[in-house]
Design a protein that fits this description.
By secondary structure, the protein is α/β, with parallel strands linked by helices. It folds into 2 domains: 231 residues, 3-Layer(aba) Sandwich (Rossmann fold); 239 residues, 3-Layer(aba) Sandwich (Rossmann fold). It has 14 helices and 22 strands. The chain has a 9-stranded mixed beta sheet, sandwiched between helices. A 9-stranded mixed beta sheet has the order 14-13-15-16-12-17-18-19-20, with helices on both faces. Strand 6 and strand 7 form a beta hairpin. Helix 5 packs across helix 6. The longest helix is centred in the first third of the chain and has 16 residues. The protein is elongated, with a radius of gyration of 30 Å. The termini are far apart.
């Protein structure tokens, strides 16, 4: 029976894990953190103890695999001090043992398991800690030599601590040949940490709460990174948890011709997919919306997967768009994203911080191709993006998604079909006419209102984006190889740095 009310939960030392658990751990219980070497078990265990020190509690770290000197190095790398953490070594010293060390330092191979357990009991009774970490159970497993004896000794640990007001975390490095489900059945809760090697780029780390008795937690995998200061965990985004009322309205692009094509602009709390070949003008359209948002006093954030900030700024200057001014004002923020170094969970958290902390009302993702490359397994791209878009829609944010198609002229392929998730779709195409390559723009979908169904030519000029009349004299513009059936030239006249 849990004598502690819900409000008495204690922090794990990690804000992300506390969020996943809905507030932290039940006190005076025994938990298991398991994962292969290098996944961050010792680091998050130290965070748990340091959270106790911050509350004025006595804490104990029992180590059977690392020395106090090694633990101190780990702490200093994270900017921590282990002052207030009682460290009990059950490992051989690095030098000849002196009499002062004889009591607290043992070699696991030279002592019986029961003696090791008794030494732990004695130290706990001496220190009387509120929090204990035992690192790691693999040493006890080796000493036990058979599963039955090992289980009995772990049960002895659990029963001993059950009589004390003490929260215990056991660490297991999964060196056994098979998963040790005995530990799962004994523990009040189990947290699994994993490190995944991918074909290119940084390794991915993720965490999963396997079980937690009596605690409702957020299931599934959650990405995390190990940074100075400890584990930074990114709880899996669940859009239904983040609904925020927002005033409805239309966000214009600032370009009268484009707004007319869109039926006044794009609605807040929706997302629009801008799709077309590389270099056709997708980013320029998105920049136009970002500048318009800044000129209204709204914050916009541009996540660039494919191009650097310098390239985007140079393009805007060529088009006569005042991007430099709004970047300097801070109303438009450009964030360069390296797909090889980023996990999907970390990206989702970056978007959330832009919205919740910085008040972003417009989010541009340039492009979905780069986001796809950031995924360790592209099967989940649609699910990840669906949750992210649902979250942004519920926050009243206008989201622009850019997607580059394969090919320039003629039949084109789309690397991922996300159009059914989009509230609006703008298609930008190259087409050939009169021996020149030109651009066409059309709005093929808008769920939230009326829009023009025409196909219009548009041009990137030194005065920005210029959109011409409907291409009514052409047939097959969207195929890239149209047939001219009119008697007059409906195309825009040549001019501007990018004029045909």
């Amino acid at each position: 029976m849990n004598e502690h009310p819900e409000a008495s939960r204690i922090s794990t030392g990690s804000a992300g894990l506390d969020d996943i658990l809905g507030g932290g751990l039940d006190p005076d219980r025994l938990y298991l953190y398991e994962g292969r070497p290098g996944t961050g078990k010792t680091t998050i265990a130290l965070q748990f103890l340091l959270a106790g020190v911050a509350r004025g509690e006595r804490v104990l770290f029992v180590t059977l695999s690392e020395t106090e000197r090694e633990l101190d190095l780990v702490a200093r790398r994270h900017g921590w001090s282990l002052e207030g953490v009682d460290i009990f070594e059950l490992v051989p010293a690095e030098t000849t043992l002196d009499p002062a060390q004889q009591v607290t330092v043992f070699h696991p191979a030279e002592m019986e398991l029961s003696e090791t357990i008794n030494q732990i009991f004695a130290r706990v009774e001496q220190v009387n800690p509120a929090r204990v970490v035992i690192d790691s159970l693999s040493e006890l497993r080796l000493l036990a030599q058979n599963p039955l004896r090992y289980r009995r000794q772990v049960l002895a640990l659990k029963h001993f601590f059950a009589k004390r007001r003490c929260t215990v975390i056991l660490l297991d490095d999964l060196t056994a040949a098979q998963d040790d489900l005995q530990l799962h059945s004994i523990s009040h809760g189990v947290v699994l940490l994993e490190q995944l090697a991918i074909d290119y780029g940084a390794e991915r780390r993720r965490l999963r709460v396997v079980k937690m008795r009596g605690i409702r937690f957020r299931g599934g995998y959650h990405d995390f990174t190990i940074e100075p200061g400890g584990l930074r965990i990114f709880p899996r985004l669940i859009a239904a948890e983040h609904h925020t009322p927002f005033p409805a309205g239309v966000a214009p692009s600032g370009n009268a011709e484009l707004d007319a094509l869109l039926g006044g602009g794009l609605d807040r709390g929706t997302n629009a997919l801008i799709i077309g070949s590389a270099g056709v003008g997708k980013s320029s359209l998105a920049i136009t919306f970002a500048i318009a948002a800044a000129q209204r006093g709204e914050h916009a954030v541009f996540f660039g997967f494919d191009e650097g900030r310098g390239t985007v700024e140079a393009r805007a200057r060529t088009l006569g768009l005042p991007l430099d001014e709004v970047l300097a004002s801070g109303l438009v923020e450009f964030r360069q994203v390296d797909p090889a170094e980023l996990s999907p969970g970390e990206f989702a958290m970056a978007v959330r911080e832009a919205v919740e902390k910085n008040g972003a009302r417009l989010v541009v993702i340039d492009s979905l191709n780069g986001y796809l490359n950031a995924m360790p397994d592209e099967r989940f791209l649609i699910l990840q993006m669906h949750e992210l878009l649902s979250y942004l829609n519920q926050q009243g944010v206008l989201t622009l998604l850019l997607l580059a198609q394969h090919g320039l002229v003629g039949p084109q392929e789309t690397p991922v079909d996300i159009s059914y998730l989009s509230d609006a779709v703008l298609m930008v195409r190259y087409f050939e006419a009169d021996g020149a390559v030109r651009r066409a723009l059309s709005v093929v979908k808008k769920r939230t209102g009326m829009h023009e169904h025409t196909i219009r030519e548009f041009r990137l000029t030194s005065q920005g984006i210029h959109i011409g009349p409907p291409l009514s004299e052409f047939r097959g513009v969207l195929t890239g190889t149209p047939e001219y059936v009119g008697t007059a030239d409906p195309l825009l006249s040549s001019g501007g740095p990018n004029g045909a």
